[in-house]
Amino acid sequence: MKNTFVFPFLSIMLIMIFSCKEPVRKKTDFPNDLKNTHWIVDAGGLISPDGGKNYNLSPRVDTALIFNFHAIDFPDEEKFRSYDSWQCGNDCFTEVYGRYYFTEINRIEMEVDSIRKSGECEAPVKIFKPAEKMSFLLKKEGKQLQLIRK
Questions:
Q1: How far apart are CA 134 and CA 114, in angstroms?
Q2: pTM for this prediction
Q3: Cα-flanking dihedrals φ and ψ of residue 116, to 5°?
Q4: Are the C-beta atoms of 104 and 119 separated by less than 8 Å?
Q5: Contact 54, 44 (CB under 8 A)
Q6: Span 19-76, pLDDT tens digits
Q7: Three-state DSSP class for 144?
């Protein structure tokens, strides 16, 4: 009698444990030209879930002579950071943190994990559980890159 109760109970517990686990994203074999790159957003603003539809990017070489800008960095093969920088007088800064991966050779999925505001507009970090998803088509023209929201 004991075994007839233990087995169904144990089975239900295992199902509950494994169904609560976050799904693991399958690695893709698409080339990642974004890894270790830094970009100035020429048009479109901060790359965020409620941001623009199109973003025009130029490689960031040196920001010493640029006082006001939006930017995005891809420090490794899966993380990104979008942020802004302002000259004196506008002391409200926003940073968007998340992960990215390629779904096709020219399509990228970005998942926003958190948004941080500092300076005069400081607020508690906004954490997204589950992550906010954004999908983009990538278009390259010379050294320029365009992200088009899908």
A1: 13
A2: 0.77
A3: -120, 130
A4: no
A5: yes
A6: 444 445 555 678 898 999 999 999 988 899 989 999 999 998 876 677 788 999 999 9
A7: strand
